[in-house]
Amino acid sequence: MTETDKLFAQPRAQIGDFAFDDEVVRVFPDMIKRSVPGYPTIVETIGLIAGQYARPDSLIYDLGCSLGAATQSMRRHVRASGCRIMAVDNSAPMISRCREYLFAQNAMVEELTPVEVMEADITRLALQPCSVVVLNFTLQFIPPPQRLQLLTDIHRALLPGGLLILSEKLAFADPRTQQNLETMHYVFKRANGYSELEIAQKRSAIEKVMLPDTLEAHQDRLFKAGFSHSHSWFQSLNFCSMMAHK
């Protein structure tokens, strides 16, 4: 059962770096819904997009799958015959709960795309040929020096005409834009019941482990990784999702 996110509701003497541990996993669905504007739309549309680009008898990757929300969406929408999904995350608690959610989905929905769940570091994963790759709010947690190599590896693994779906929190070069959208993000969180204390403590915990880029930096890196074209398909405040084509 999903718990309400109260991880930062009480004052903490010391605030360590944010980690996807058991404590976070218990409240993650509530946390991400109340923290990321447009998240349900992004997840559902990832399934629709994957359904258009998945090739028959091909592999689909959900890299940094967390609890498998994007994987569940793709399982509902991908109809190409012979496809299978590989959901990968380096958090053991996430992977354990992800398997539970996918098992429950199996009991509720028939004829789902097969999925395998793997605990692994995606920066060290030997990617197999694939038609679709999803990085749904994952790249921002990868150390910046490793991001280009990961995208290059993904581009190399994609089949001709393959697609990367990349969702990220954005930074903005213009200070006024950055301030305005960051302020509105905090307004969004307050409207979803987070207190000033929770917002401040969560920001302190995550600011050293989640390092966002500008849209321009993402597009430049995608071009350097070999992608022929990229564009955003969704933005809500400072959160965006992109498509990058091989």
From TrEMBL:
HAMAP family: Cx_SAM_synthase. This is Carboxy-S-adenosyl-L-methionine synthase. It catalyses: prephenate + S-adenosyl-L-methionine = carboxy-S-adenosyl-L-methionine + 3-phenylpyruvate + H2O. Its EC number is 2.1.3.-. InterPro entries: CmoA (IPR005271), Methyltransf_25 (IPR041698), SAM-dependent_MTases_sf (IPR029063). Keywords: S-adenosyl-L-methionine, Transferase. Homodimer. It comes from Halopseudomonas salina. It is an enzyme of class 2 (transferase). Belongs to the class I-like SAM-binding methyltransferase superfamily. Cx-SAM synthase family. S-adenosyl-L-methionine binds at Y39, G64, C65, S66, D89, N90, D121, I122, N136, R203. Residues 60-162 form the Methyltransferase domain. Catalyzes the conversion of S-adenosyl-L-methionine (SAM) to carboxy-S-adenosyl-L-methionine (Cx-SAM). CDD domains: AdoMet_MTases. Transmembrane segments: none annotated. SUPFAM superfamilies: S-adenosyl-L-methionine-dependent methyltransferases.
